Amino acid sequence: MSAALIDARDLHTYYDDSHILRGVSLRLRAGETVGLMGRNGMGKSTLIRTLMGLVKPRRGTILIDGRDMTGAATFRIARTGIAYVPEGRGIFASLRVAENLSIAARPGIDGSVAWDIPRVLQLFPRLAERIGNGGDQLSGGEQQMLAIARALVTNPRILILDEATEGLAPLIRDEIWHTIRLVRDSGIATLLVDKTVAEVTAVADRVMVLVKGETVFEGRPTALMADADRMHGWLGV
Amino acid sequence: MNLLAQLLNGLQYGLLLFLIASGLTLVFGVLGVINLAHGSLFMVGAYLAYVIAKTTGALWLALPAGLIGGIMLGAGLERFLFRHFYHREHLDQVLLTFALILLFEEGRSFLLGNDFHSVPVPALFDFSIPVAPGFSYSAYRFFVIGCCLALGAALYLWIERTRMGAIIRAAAEKPEMVDVIGIDARRVHMVVFAIGTALAVIAGALAAPLYSVYPGIGDGFLIISFVVVVIGGLGSVSGAFWSALLIGMVDTLGKAYMPAVAGLAIYVLMAAVLLVRPSGLFGQRA
Ligand SMILES: Nc1ncnc2c1ncn2[C@@H]1O[C@H](COP(=O)(O)OP(=O)(O)OP(=O)(O)O)[C@@H](O)[C@H]1O
Ligand SMILES: [Mg+2]
Q: Could you read off the pLDDT of B88-146 as tens digits, one per residue?
């Protein structure tokens, strides 16, 4: 078993007085794909935002490569090789597509430049056609492609996707899932939040289910699927 | 010919206002802070020009000194003061920047006293250029117009065409995402504040030979610059440019031809713009 890239232990995160994460732990190893599941408001995004340093946990530790990064600035966490595509995509509407990519592009921490701008444009030819357009002129699907492309050009070791297929047309969703597989196969570890159970369980090595800020299941997708009753209870599907 | 002179004066005044307002609006757009002490930075530039002219006789030195000194002053102010106030309430920010005004004024009073001083136009530009038959216009004012246009163009190219400029626009829009892609947003804030400060200091240095230097010289310019920023749309540099030209013209022509009401004209203009288009007349973004 290789050492964990991310080893987060016993995280407790609050928004003001509401106790959202109640002792969640998460490990992500190199090259691994983990699906994070749970119904609306269960704390999936909060867990990710805590890992990224966007909210500080009140208790618990976050180790990255074995180093304590609890409370570190977000840009430092990102620079350990973590790319995060947030809910709502977070693209810069006032920047052109090319600028959205060029301000993010950098070699990975191992110096790798495998994912450069030409390669992501090859991956998403629609972005190549839109390269001179403003971020505010893109369709929802194109925005999502841009958000993923912008994450990839940072040459990450870990890609975190929060609801990357939400609200997209079926054809575009398929394209995004295809990309997620491609990324996984290229050896980038992925932490995936998505509500389409069938798709998540199909790509993930491991899944985690959150209910009200606590982990109620962690294991192989097949093990989750095998317990249909409990799965329905947790996920409402 | 008088009209031509007034138009040129309006252009020169408007462009000078743009140098001040661009920093004000940029700092507001990216850092979210309304810097009341921006006028004090202008004052620093004016007194810098006065001191340099008096001690060295070489006023042109005020431009490189203003640029370098302004960048250093701005970076220091951001690093040690403003940085700690981004997440504070607006009232705290107002108090901080108001306290800075008092500090700058006291410092000026302590170091240089409270007298009026005229600053001679540099010998190189101490002549008039014939513009039309029987009419010539101050070479120094032309120089100021040229400097402002050059700095404005440089600022535009920097913001619109460079990687740093794109990062600044990104930070104005979604600061959190700038950090997420691995860029230290604090550094971006520091750069923006430093450039905004340098522009105000240079504006002050350019203005010194035209308006003399005196206590509170920054106050009037600050207030008009706020009008410029509001009409141009908060945070919009291109908006500030057109708005500054408009205000410069209205104010100058008003004072020349309708002195009775001119003092009020730009404020009435501002109120009218706010009523009709609360987000300002020009441009919607930086
Ligand atoms: N900024 C905030 N301030 C206060 N409460 C918040 C904030 N963000 C989220 N919450 C609350 O925290 C809880 C967890 O939210 P979170 O966004 O982590 O859920 P989620 O599992 O990602 O849900 P979804 O599937 O809807 O994205 C919810 O009850 C939500 O209302
Ligand atoms: Mg969420």
A: 999 999 999 999 999 999 999 999 999 999 999 988 899 999 988 889 999 999 999 99
Using DSSP's 3-state secondary structure scheme, residue A100 falls into helix
Each residue's pLDDT tens digit, A86-110: 999 999 999 999 999 999 999 999 9
Torsion sign (Cα): B105, B110, B115, B121: negative
Specify whether the CB–CB gap between A26 and A62 falls below 8 A: no
Touching check for B179 and chain A: CB below 8 Å? yes
ipTM: 0.94
User: Residues in chain B, how many?
Assistant: 286
Q: Is B170 within 8 Å of chain A by CB?
A: yes
Looking at chain B, list the stretches that DSSP marks H as alpha helix, in order from N- to C-terminal side.
Answer: 2-31, 38-56, 62-80, 90-112, 139-161, 163-173, 175-180, 185-211, 217-232, 237-257, 259-276
pLDDT of residue B285: 44
A-chain residues within 8 Å CB-CB of B174? Answer: 90, 92
Torsion over CA: B168, B170, B175, B176 (sign): negative
Taking an 8 Å cut-off on Cβ atoms, the answer to whether B181 and A95 are in contact is no
